Amino acid sequence: MAQHYFIGISIAAPAFKLAEQFRAKYMLYEKYKVLPNKDDLHITMRYIGEMDENRTDTLISSLHKIANDHTNFNTSITGLKFFGSSSGPRVVYLSVDKVNALCNLQIQIARRTEKILGLEKDHPFVPHITIAKKRKTTDKMELTTEKITPVNIQINGFTLFKIHPNIKPSYEPIEYFPLKKS
């Protein structure tokens, strides 16, 4: 199987407790095949998929330049949402406040990555932290979106990850890109 990659922001510490609370409340362990490991919780900035290893150095160099052009910032986890129907969503996630600094960083990462790797334009950016995906049952669910008291998260950088689907944690950091301190 070809090696797949993505660029993301690790959010393990502040997200794990919330993820576990919602997983228990909605019995997501019984209903989903994939419940990301604590260390795998992240905000995806750009999914890459397969990558020609010859382009890795160019990509890494370019991502360091992007990181050097941005300062660290804060955003927050704002609640529970999902992609798909409330009676059987395909992905359940923690929603993340779409602050300008996060959106601007994502746009630059996506554009540069698409240009270097010849990727098609990505889907519209919905900042989120997946806590459950790939349903294993067709039973109807009663999932509702929930707002919570925002949980502050500081964004200090982003990472190029290699995906290992059959081991836990599944995401291996290849290179970390620290943002400038504000």
List strands and helices in order, with pairings.
Elements: E1 4-10, H1 12-25, H2 28-31, E2 32-34, E3 42-50, H3 56-68, E4 73-83, E5 91-96, H4 100-117, E6 128-135, E7 146-155, E8 157-163, E9 171-178
Antiparallel strand pairs: 1-3, 1-8, 2-6, 4-5, 4-7, 5-6, 8-9
Features of the shown structure:
182 residues; 9 strands; alpha+beta; globular; 4-stranded antiparallel sheet
What would your notes on this structure say?
The protein has 182 residues and is α+β, with helices and mostly antiparallel strands. It is built from four helices and nine strands. It has helices at residues 12-25, 28-31, 56-68, 100-117; strands at residues 4-10, 32-34, 42-50, 73-83, 91-96, 128-135, 146-155, 157-163, 171-178. Strands 2-6-5-4-7 form a five-stranded antiparallel sheet. Strands 3-1-8-9 form a four-stranded antiparallel sheet. Helix 3 (56-68) packs antiparallel against helix 4. The relative contact order is 0.27. The mean pLDDT is 94.
**Gyration radius, rounded:** 16 Å
Query: What overall geometry do the principal axes of the alpha carbons give?
Result: globular
Largest sheet: 5 strands, antiparallel
Show unreliable segments. none
Share in helix: 25-40%
Put simply, the count of helices is 4
Give the strand order, joined by hyphens, for the main sheet: 2-6-5-4-7
The ordered string of helix (H) and strand (E) elements is: EHHEEHEEHEEEE
Strands, count: 9
How far is it from the N-terminal to the C-terminal residue, by CA?
A: 42 Å
Helix and strand content put the structural class at alpha+beta
Oligomer: single chain
Share in β-strands: 35-45%
Give average pLDDT, whole number.
94
